[in-house]
Design goal:
heterodimer, A: 2 strands, B: alpha/beta, Alpha-Beta Plaits, 4-stranded antiparallel sheet, 11 helices
């Protein structure tokens, strides 16, 4: 049986459902800001006291890492929704058993979950920009571009999360996900520029979706603009589209057995 | 009732492909059936008989592996969303949105069917009344009892005014009172002309609710008909149940068989059952044979006797 086509109204009905649940868990949104804020305070200001100003962009270190942590905040918020939350709906709540028999197609369900997760990413991004403002880390109005940028970051990681979820066998598999996500967070140039790496390693780092997300958000946030941003946007768009196609294909096999 | 059937299946087959080298599993093995509009039809059978697979194919959420299936005049493989828009499904687990209120659960479900909000609100009152949940409208699902949740699941499935309602073991896990309330609700639906398709392994439920039953075993339909017709066709009018001391049952069953008592003598772990047209006469024969059971009970044959005969006792747990 095919995944069926997308129908905007059907897709949005799932987004509406998730929004209702989301409305009841605003504290969870605030909680999702705690971790990035702690990184910003400890690394941005703590380590930053040793670093001083960052050469090339001429801003203090906390202002340099803030947009990268912003990208990880959007990433985690979106990713958690399509991994933890969707897996829980599949295994514990069995929500899809009630949704599949309605006119919604699997394509509607997959896209609806991704759009919902993108909103989570967006809220986390807006919240974190406010934290940055409170801490005096806004150095350019270009930070406003980080908001649409966070939509793309959210899309790539929401779709990626959904694709990963279709491979999970059990809750313990989330440890494997952590084994990928944590090193990516640490090494995808969150805390230093890619020039730190030897030449042969750079292409590998540049393949990481978080690296591309940071590329998309950091420089515009610091008021620097170049065409590389478009390449990053294109990468994230393609990454998200491929992941969504894979997720839809696998979900179809799982939900319409 | 025998106008144009609302569902027709011919040689319907479901094969689950093998994974990790296990052989393919034939869950439904070429079955035929058809339902008329407004009929209540029950699929009866032990676990693994193929009931749920059949239901999933009927709901247009599982492709048939062979044979033909027509639901509301359409082919589920081609018209899935259009079929699903006109049927209701009550899954075995409630699958409600636990974080949301009773009202929101119905509202959200209506949106899946593309219904306008004001239309859903219009139907909401009537569905809450139907489910006897008016006072719980704003309660979170989390706090509802099992019976209330099940009624909410049914109410929710009615938001699109379905012509066919598929219920997978609707009263499993409910207490007797909650079951009777639920049966009453289902009767009302049937009266309103909704076609009910039910799977169950409760005989009383099948007898209460269904006009017609199909007994499934091993992916096949082994018998079909009204509850009364099934009893008449497959078992005797009466049944004599005899209890002896535990060790004696096998020997007693042997002796009764030698004496050709009744139509059939069945040995169970805890009793010997004699199928006879006249139970009292059979009991008199038992006494004449110098056997003195600890207890003896003559009763009318039920659907359970049919079920046990057709599907084999060893499968029941």
């Amino acid at each position: 049986m095919s995944a069926g086509g997308w129908a905007p109204r059907r897709t949005l009905s799932l987004v509406e459902r998730n929004a209702r649940i989301f409305r009841r868990s605003l504290t969870a949104v605030l909680a999702s800001l705690v971790e990035p804020t702690m990184y910003l305070l400890s690394v941005g200001f703590g380590v930053g006291a040793l670093v001083g100003r960052v050469a090339g962009v001429e801003v203090r270190y906390a202002a340099y890492v803030a947009p990268a942590i912003l990208a990880t905040a959007a990433m985690n918020a979106a990713f958690n929704q399509t991994s933890f939350a969707v897996f829980s709906r599949m295994r514990n709540e069995r929500s899809y058993d009630a949704i599949v028999p309605t006119p919604l197609s699997v394509a509607d369900i997959a896209l609806g979950e991704v759009i919902s997760a993108v909103f989570w990413g967006l809220f986390a991004a807006v919240g974190f920009v406010l934290v940055m403002a409170l801490l005096g880390l806004i150095v350019s109005p270009g930070v406003l571009l980080a908001i649409p940028g966070a939509l793309l970051v959210g899309f790539a990681f929401a779709a990626g999360g959904l694709a990963v979820t279709t491979y999970l066998r059990d809750w313990s598999d989330f440890q494997l996900i952590q084994l990928v996500m944590l090193p990516m967070f640490l090494f995808a140039t969150t805390f230093y520029p890619v020039s730190v790496y030897p030449g042969w390693l750079r292409p590998l780092v540049e393949l990481l979706p978080l690296y591309q997300s940071i590329q998309l958000l950091r420089e515009p946030s610091l008021g620097v603009f170049n065409w590389g941003v478009l390449a990053a946007a294109g990468y994230l768009m393609l990454f998200g589209a491929l992941a969504l196609a894979l997720a839809t294909r696998r979900l179809t096999r799982q939900l319409l057995a | 009732m025998e106008e144009t059937p609302i569902v027709v299946a011919r040689g319907l087959t479901k094969i689950y492909r093998s994974r990790d080298g296990a052989p393919a599993f034939r869950a439904v093995d070429g079955i035929d059936f058809s339902f008329g509009r407004g009929e209540a039809f029950g699929f009866l059978g032990p676990n693994g008989a193929g009931k749920s697979s059949t239901m999933r194919m009927l709901a247009a959420i599982s492709p048939a592996s062979g044979g033909s299936l027509e639901v509301l005049g359409m082919d589920p493989a081609l018209d899935g969303p259009r079929i699903r828009a006109r049927i209701g499904v009550v899954p075995q687990d409630d699958c409600l949105d636990r974080e949301l209120s009773v009202r929101e659960n119905i509202l959200v479900y209506g949106r899946y069917f593309g219904l306008r909000r004001d239309l859903i609100r219009e139907r909401l009152g009537e569905l809450l009344a139907f489910a006897q949940l008016e006072e719980k409208a704003d309660a979170q699902v989390e706090v509802l009892s099992g019976g209330m949740r099940r009624r909410l699941t049914i109410a929710r499935s009615l938001i699109n005014r379905p012509e066919i309602l598929l219920l997978d073991e609707p009263t499993t896990g409910l207490d007797p009172q909650a079951r009777h309330i639920l049966w009453d609700r289902l009767y009302r639906l049937k009266q309103d002309g909704v076609t009910l398709i039910i799977t169950t392994h409760y005989m009383d439920e099948a007898e209460q609710l269904c006009d017609r039953l199909a007994v499934m075993d091993g992916g096949r339909i082994v018998a079909e008909g009204s509850p009364r017709a099934l009893i008449e066709a497959h078992v005797t009018r009466e049944v004599l149940e005899l209890r002896f001391s535990v060790d004696a049952h096998a020997a007693v069953a042997e002796r009764l068989r030698d004496r050709r008592l009744g139509e059939r003598v069945e040995l169970l772990p805890d009793r010997v059952v004699v199928y006879a047209h006249d139970g009292e006469a059979a009991l008199a024969q038992v006494h004449a044979a110098q056997l003195s059971p600890i207890t003896a009970l003559v009763r009318r044959a039920t659907l359970e006797d049919v079920f046990l005969k057709l599907t084999g006792r060893s499968l029941i747990d």
